[in-house]
Each structure stands twice: as C-alpha cells, then as structure tokens.
Amino acid sequence: MHLLDRLRTFRDSFVMIPALFITTAIVLSFALVALDRSVAYGPEATSVFFFTVGPEGARGILSAIASTVLSVATMAFSITISVMSTASSSFGPRLVRNFMSDRGNQIVLGTFTSTFLYCLMVMRTIQSDDTDVPQGSFVPHLAVNFSMVLALACVAVLIYFINHIASGIQVSTIATTVQQKYLKLIEKRFHAEEAASEVFESYSDNHLPDAFTYQVHAETNGYVVDIERLTLGKKLAKSIAGVHIFVCPGDHLVKGQLIATIQAPRELDDQQVEQISSTVRQLCSVGESRTEYDDIRFLQDQIVELGVRALSPGTNDPFTLTNSTHELTVGLIRAAQAEHAKNSVFVGGELKVRFEPVEASELVDSAFDNFRSYALNHEQCVIDLLNMAGKVIALGDNEPAVARARWHAAVLLEYFRATKPHDYSLALVTDAYERYVVEHRF
Predict the structure, then answer these.
(1) How far is residue 147's CA from residue 51's CA, in Å, rounded to a whole number?
(2) d(CA 109, CA 373)
(3) What is the CA angle 200-206-208, rounded to 5?
(4) For 192-251, how does the pLDDT look when each residue is reduced to its tens digit (9 = 90+)?
(5) Helix axes 16-38, 141-168, angle to 10 degrees
(6) For residue 327, what are the CA distances in angstroms to 120, 170, 361, 397, 441?
(7) Element housing 252 (H / E)
(8) In terms of Cα–Cα distance, which of 369, 377, 380, 390 is closest to 301?
(9) Pick from 67, 81, 344, 376: CA 20 to 30 A from residue 14's CA?
(10) Which of the residues in the chain have pLDDT under 50?
(11) Cβ atoms of 264 and 207 closer than 8 Å
C-alpha cells in the first residue's frame, strides 16, 4: 500500500484527530504554565471570569476535571464500540469504516483525552509551601482557569456526542452519507471537467500505438485500492510509450495477473520496459481490503447492502430497501446522464494512458442483479425497483445504461409473475411497470 493510502487510513482512524488534540493540549499546558511563571497573579486578580486559588484548591479542580473527563471518555468510547457493533450486524461490516472515519466521533474522543492529559500536565507543576523545592509555592492560575474552559467544552461535546450518535445510527443518515460519497465519485469519473492543464482525464475512442507490446504483471495479492493515472501520465510524458491498464479500483489481484500493457510504436529496450513496469506497479496501490476512495462499485454495494440486509427474516424491513433505492436512483441517473465514463489520460494533448472504466451500464446491472432475488417476495420492493428503472430510462442519456434498465425492468416483472403472486399483488406490480417504465409517470 502506498504512503498516500496509509495516510488516508491514518486519517480515517481513531488515531489522527485525538493525536493532534493531545499534542496541542501538551504544548498548550507548557505555554500557559510558562506564561504563569512570567506573570505573578495575586488575590486582587480575581474577577467574575478569573479566579485564583491555593495549591490544594488547584489540585482539587484539576483532579476532579481529569477523573471525570476520563470516566466520560470511557463511556463515550464504549458507546461508540457498541454502535459500531450494531452497525456491523445490522447494516454490514463494510459500513463500520464510516463510523471510524466520522469526524464528529474523532473530535469527541480527542477532546476528552486531551483535556485529561492537559490537567495532568498542569497538575504536576503545582508546588506547595511544604514541598522541598527552592522556588517555593507555585500555582499556574491561568492554566487552571483554562482547565475550566476545557471542562465546559467537554460538557458541550458530550451533549453533541449523544445527539450525533443517535442521529448517526439511523438508516436514512447512513444511506445519505454513503450516497454523498457515491455521487462525488460519479461526478469525478463521469462528469467533472478537468481544469485546463497539461495532464487531464477524458473519454476517447483512440487507441495507443501497439506495434510493440510488453506485459506488466502483479507482484502481490490483494485488492486494487487506487490507481494514480494522472501521475502515471506525467511520468510517461517524455516517453514514446503509453500504458493500457486493465484493472479497476476494487478488483482483486493475484500474483502474476496481467494488470497492464506497455504499448509503443517502436521497440523499447529492457531497461525502459522494466522502468515503466516498475512505475505502473508503484502507482497501482494494492491493499488488504476494498476502500471507498476511488471504488464506485464498493460505495454502490454499501447502499445495496443496506436494503438487502433489511429484507433478511430477522429484520424484515422493506422500507429500508425503499430508502436505499431512492438513494441509489440519484447516483444511477447521474451516471446514466453521461454518454461515456472517462477512460483516457492525455498529456499535452497526447494519449498516454488508457484504462478500463466502470461504465454506467455496469452499475445498473450490479444494482438490479443484487436486489432482484431478495425483493421478489415483497411487492412494494419490486415496485420501488421498477420506479428506479423507469427514472433511469426517462432521465438517462447513456444508451447502454438505459437499455439495461429497460431489460432489467422486464426481467423483474417476469420473475415476479413466476412466483405466482396473488392477483391483487400482480395487478399492483403490472400497473407500476406500465406507469414507471412504459409511460414514465412518477
């Protein structure tokens, strides 16, 4: 896995934000104590917003805040683990990453732990008259006052945390969070216009010159996490060769599998081939699991899994599938509104990298194929899928995607009839097919 991907994993873990908060708290404790040593506060400095206390009082305040905050942090962490366990069993283990990468949860944990350590760091500087030190007694009044500010912040964060967890566990919130990432990636892969630059991605029917072709094979096992196509294009700028990549983010690789070919109009020497092959392997990041950074299919599978798990006998919640199809429809339509997905990298107007994109028709196939077998026993779910197909047909411009949506709608109706439903249920589904797929009335 590349350094960039390791940094992404670190960013999405429970480590980065708390680590930054803890570092800030330690630095702040040293700074405020140093400021306290340079400014002597007497009893006359006491006001409504600033107080001075003796060594024992300062220790009592800091000790009370530290012990209370640590207890609350333990409780908050327990709640988070419980919510992650519930999400894993109810919504799917792939959605646990969304809770871990949630900035709100990370900030809450960071606030509590940094406050605890801040109080400890300040408490160690307090000196009483009875201590055997040459400097005499010392109380960092400014630092102690700031601990009260942190205590108030912890109370506010606790209230926020309870509300955040309560809303975050709702199916609608989870589906919307995943859908936003899904739409963002669809815009990037299908619609986003690249800024006027020397290196950009676009769709092209052109092919790389293939008079001489050299194969590049994987040297490790795992999932393709990311392919830095633009960086690869830049590195090939001065070369006569181009690269055709055959794998996509989310594909599983085994050692020795063909991942790309180097294509050139003239023969390349062994050193050039090895250099380009090494660059391709370095820029094709392989990890232990699929991620959401550049894997459209993974994000779509998360939305589908929400609906599919809701139809399990233990849950039996077809309304969640309805919510999932609504979230998914927005993305499928947006993908189907592009005639083609980007498949090429140009450097200075010259084609340098060709790659296999995830097409809109593939997304349509995946959605209906994964939903169909689970939805057949629920007429409302079948109607929701017909609604989704009808909207893709009516609003999509991508002919293959529209054709696949129309085909899936017909197959869905045929499969539902084969289950021999009640006449009333069959009439409802048939009417929905006519309304959504044929007449486009929504």
Answers:
(1) 12
(2) 42
(3) 85
(4) 766 567 888 988 888 898 889 999 999 999 999 889 999 999 999 888 999 999 999 999
(5) 160
(6) 47, 14, 18, 20, 19
(7) strand 252-253
(8) 369
(9) 67
(10) none
(11) no
